[in-house]
Amino acid sequence: MQRLLYEARDTADRLGVPVFLIGGSVRDLIMDVGNFDLDIAVEGDGIGFAKDYARTLKAAWLAHKRFGTATVTVKPHLKIDVASTRRETYPAAGALPQVKAGSLIHDLARRDFTINTLALRLNRKGFGEVVDKFNGRKDIARKLIRILHDRSFIDDPTRILRGIRFEQRYGFHIEPRTLACLKAAVRRDALSSVGPQRVRDELHLLCKEKHPLKSLKRLQVLAGLHFIHPRLSLSSAKQQLLAQAERQVSWFENQLPPHRQLDTWLVYFLALLDGLSVNDVHAVCRRFVFRKGEEKRMLVYAASRTRVLQALQKKEIRPSEIYHLLEPLSFEAIIVLKAKAAGKGVQRHIELFLTQYSGTRISVSGDTLAGFGVRPGPQYQMVLRRVFDAKLNRQVHSKEEEVALARDLARKPYD
Question: Where do the domains of the chain lie, and which CATH numbers do they carry?
Answer without folding.
Answer: 1-134 (3.30.460.10), 143-224 (1.10.110.30), 236-359 (1.10.3090.10), 366-411 (no CATH)
